[in-house]
Amino acid sequence: MLDTPQLPDQLDADQGQAPPSEPAPPVPVRTEKRTESPRGCLFALSQPPLMIFLGVIGSLLLMAALHDLLLL
User: Fold this and answer.
1) pLDDT band, residue 6 (cuts 50/70/90)
2) Any stretches that span the bilayer, and where are they (predicted)?
3) Using one digit for the tens of pLDDT, what is the confidence trace for 9-39?
4) How high is the mean pLDDT of the chain?
5) 13: number of Cβ within 10 Å
6) In Å, how far are 34, 37, 50, 54 from 58, measured between CA atoms?
7) 24-55 burial, b if ≥16 CB within 10 A, otherwise e?
8) DSSP 3-state of 57
9) Alpha-carbon distance 61 to 67, whole Å?
10) 45 with 51: CB under 8 angstroms?
């Protein structure tokens, strides 16, 4: 049968010694309530790159519509 390698803390546990344990980090306690509302879809629309992109697409659609209506 194959002999599986063991970690040093497993070897200590096999010899009856408890492996060294680290204390758990303290959990932060929130005492203040959140006053700002969660960000939703309208927050995404206020981003400048998105508004520039939508403006360019809108102007292209407007030019195509005016071309169809006035020149054809």
Assistant:
1) low
2) 50-71
3) 565 555 555 555 777 777 776 666 666 666 6
4) 75
5) 13
6) 38, 30, 12, 6
7) eeeeeeeeeeeeeeeeeeeeeeeeeeeeeeee
8) helix
9) 10
10) yes
Structure tokens at 19: 């492996």
Contact 12, 18 (CB under 8 A): yes
H helix and E strand count, the chain: 3, 0
The per-residue pLDDT for 16 is 58
In SS3 terms, 24-54 reads as: CCCCCCCCCCCCCCCCCHHHHHCCHHHHHHH
Please give the C-alpha separations between residue 55 and each of 46, 64, 67, in angstroms, as whole numbers. 13, 14, 18
